[in-house]
Amino acid sequence: MARESLEQIKARKQPRQARAKATVDAIFEATIQVLLSDGLSRLTTTRVAERAGVSVGTMYQYFPQKQALLFALLARHIEAVADGVATARARCHGLSLETISDGLVEAYLDAKTKNLDAARALYAVAAEIDTDDLLGTVARRNQNAVCDVLKSAEDVTFDAPDEVAFTLRATLAGTTRAVLERGATRQELAAMRRELPILCRAYLCARAMRTLAPGCR
C-alpha cells in the first residue's frame, strides 16, 4: 500500500449525532476485527462495511477510501493516549516524584490497554500511511505534558527536564509496543503493570537532583 498524503486521507465528515457516532464506532470496531482476522493487505472498505453491518455508501459518507479510515482509527487511538497523559498531568501536578511517575505510567498503560485488539492491530497501520504530522503533534503534546508535570514535582528538580521527559516517553512507548504487538498473555500484561512503574520510578529518581529527593537515595 502506498503512503498517502494527509490531504488524501482526511475523513470526509465528522459524526455529530448520537446515531452517527454509533455508526462510526461500529465501523472502527469492524476495522479492528478485519485487521486482526485478515491482515492489513486484505482489508477493504467492503469487508469492513459487511462486518459493521452498514452499506458501502454509508462508509463513504465518512471515509472516502481505506487510508482515510485507517488514519481516523489510528488518530482516535493515539489521541486517547494523549488524553490519558494530560489527565495524569493535571491530577499529579505539584505532587511528589513517586506519585507523578506512578500516575503517568498508570495513565499511559490504562489508555494503551483499554482496547488491546486496537493497540495490537494499529502498530502495522502507522507504517502504511503518512502519519508524520499526526504523530508529531501528539508527541509534542505528550512531551509538554510530561515535562511540565516533572518540573512541578514538590520534592525534586531536574537539570534537563526535556531530556528526561523524552526518555521516559520512549521507555513507555517502547515497552508497551514490545509487549502488546506480539500478543501479550494475561501474565505478561500483569508483569508489565508491575515492573514498568518500578523501572520508570528508578530512572526518574536517578536523574533527579538527589539533594532534594530523600526518597530516591
Automatic annotation (TrEMBL):
It comes from Methylocella tundrae. Residues 21-81 form the HTH tetR-type domain. This is TetR/AcrR family transcriptional regulator. It comes from the Bacteria. InterPro entries: Homeodomain-like_sf, HTH-type_TetR-like_transc_reg, HTH_TetR, TetR_C_15. Residues 44-63 bind DNA. Keywords: DNA-binding, Transcription, Transcription regulation. The keyword Amino-acid biosynthesis does not apply. GO terms for molecular function: DNA-binding transcription factor activity; transcription cis-regulatory region binding. PROSITE patterns: HTH_TETR_2 (PS50977).
